[in-house]
Write a structure and sequence with these properties.
The chain is α/β, with parallel strands linked by helices. The chain has helices at about 1-25, 65-75, 100-120, 135-140, 180-190, 215-230, 240-250, 255-260, 275-290, 305-325, 335-355, 365-385, 390-410, 415, 425-445, 445-465, and strands at about 30-35, 40-45, 50-55, 80-85, 95, 125-130, 150-155, 170-175, 195-200, 470. The model has no long low-confidence stretch (mean pLDDT about 95).
Length: about 475
């Protein structure tokens, strides 16, 4: 059909535009990998001998997520170093200690930051740029070493900020983060005389999108330039929209690729309203109640072992209901599943890894991904069979059911499972992107192969995203 051809052509144009924008952000910048102890570090420079800038990411982030600021500063002549915190990205060692105590996990992250600063510092001081969790770590690190220049803190919160320290600090907050805006405004209002401090709010961004805010990056460069008496500027590309466009276009282009392969007969059995309600409602309530008394402290990742258990219970219960109501499922289409896996973990994953966030597991994470597969695979097999050929309303209800089930689990054990709250955005994004790929594959090859592949992809995405942690 003509609209399909135009859609494919448009998606290809978006890919070309997005890659051009994202690659232009790297023009003239040499990027080299190094290590400070066990800490992976990316060094970015345009060859000039400018001041040193150290970048630090937020919780569940990685050094790739700081590229928007790092590449811009490197194009402006700064020598930029971005590193992975313990347990994050490509760092092989887990976080440890008490995450709620300053003398626990925070102390270890401050020590790691000081080690990086000492390894890369040069004459002229070191500027620090950090996001979210790193804002507190950088303030505390700056208080314990000499030669620290300006601090640029994104989505700032820190109990270590005082009226006279830091004395050179720009705080950038997204327009959709009102609580953090209040912290930054108070830090400026309470500043002692002679302290150089400013808080700005950048439009139309939240906690993650701030990493690609053009206004935020331009303000950061201006602030650091003024601190060092420099005037070198650089173009601020629209990397945020380019990254979103690239990932969306990759998702859309799966459909024409799938149509290039021979389809297989797919049988569809529509559930009644009552049957659908049971298929959603039973695992929604039963999974958190059954998982609650089971001890889960096996995997060295925050809440990953519980999540694997919850996914497994939810998926097995839902599969049992669907087997009873619809009969035995057809054997999964392995070629269809392989295509989904190549597209999601391969093509989509490589683009995300290069331009957005770490998506490549270290050897330490492979066992974690395998363990997550024990839960994610039955969960996605059930999910794909449940929503196969279902209308939009049912698809939304089915996915909200799982999120509500996680909410019940958190309510039952808020202290132990608090970090499950952070999984909700990951699940939503997974459904928006990989869910479309699975739907297209299920329509052409059957839901089994798509469910199998998406289970592996979900385990992969969760396994590379959440920090390694060892109590």
């Amino acid at each position: 059909m003509r609209w399909r051809r135009w859609g494919v052509a448009l998606a290809f144009l978006v890919v070309l535009w997005a890659v051009w924008v994202l690659e232009s952000a790297r023009w003239g910048v040499d990027m080299a990998e190094m290590r400070v102890g066990e800490t992976p570090v990316t060094y970015m420079t345009d060859g000039r001998d400018g001041p040193v800038v150290v970048l630090a990411h937020g919780f569940a982030g990685s050094r790739q997520m700081m590229q928007g600021y790092g590449l811009l500063l490197a194009q402006a002549g700064y020598r930029v170093y971005a590193f992975d915190f313990l347990g994050h990205g490509q760092h092989p060692a887990p976080m440890s200690g008490d995450v709620t105590a300053v003398d626990g996990t925070t102390r270890l992250l401050v020590d790691q930051t000081l080690q990086v600063i000492e390894a890369v510092r040069a004459e002229g001081g070191v500027a620090l740029v950090g996001h979210s969790m790193a804002t507190d770590v950088l303030v505390r690190a700056a208080a314990q070493t000499d030669g620290i220049g300006p601090l640029v803190l994104l989505a700032t919160f820190s109990g270590a900020v005082t009226p006279d320290f830091p004395d050179d600090m720009l705080m950038i907050t997204g327009a959709w983060e009102p609580r953090l805006q209040g912290f930054a405004a108070d830090a400026v209002a309470e500043a002692a005389p002679g302290v150089r401090r400013e808080a700005i709010v950048v439009p139309a961004v939240e906690h993650v999108a701030i990493l690609h805010s053009r206004a935020g990056r331009a303000a950061a460069l201006d602030w650091i330039n003024e601190s060092y008496g420099r005037s070198k500027t650089a173009l601020v590309p629209q990397t945020g929209w380019a990254l979103l466009g690239l990932l969306a276009a990759i998702t859309v282009l799966f459909a024409p690729v799938a149509r290039a392969f021979a389809a297989r007969p797919v049988q569809t059995v529509t559930l009644s309203r009552k049957g659908f309600a049971v298929a959603v409602g039973l695992p929604l309530v039963a999974a958190p109640l059954l998982a609650y008394p089971i001890e889960t402290s096996v995997l060295p990742v925050l809440v990953a072992d519980y999540l694997a258990l919850h996914l497994a219970l939810y998926g097995v219960l839902q599969l049992a209901v669907l087997w009873y109501l619809r009969g035995a499922p057809a054997w999964p289409s392995l070629p269809g599943g392989a295509l989904v896996l190549v597209w999601t973990v391969g093509i989509f994953g490589l683009a995300l890894h290069r331009y957005g966030a770490n998506f490549w597991p270290t050897p330490e994470r492979l066992a974690i991904i395998a363990a997550l597969c024990l839960g994610a695979v039955p969960f996605m097999l059930a999910d794909n069979r449940l929503v196969h050929e279902a209308r939009l309303a049912r698809r939304i209800i089915a996915r909200l059911g799982f999120l509500l089930s996680l909410a019940i689990a958190v309510a039952l054990d808020f202290e132990g499972l608090f970090f499950l709250i952070l999984i909700a955005p990951v699940i939503v994004l997974f459904y928006l992107s990989f869910g479309w790929v699975g739907r297209v594959s299920a329509a052409r090859f059957g839901p089994g192969g798509a469910g199998l592949a998406l289970g592996i992809a979900l385990a992969w995405a969760l396994g590379v995203s959440f920090p390694l942690f060892q109590a």
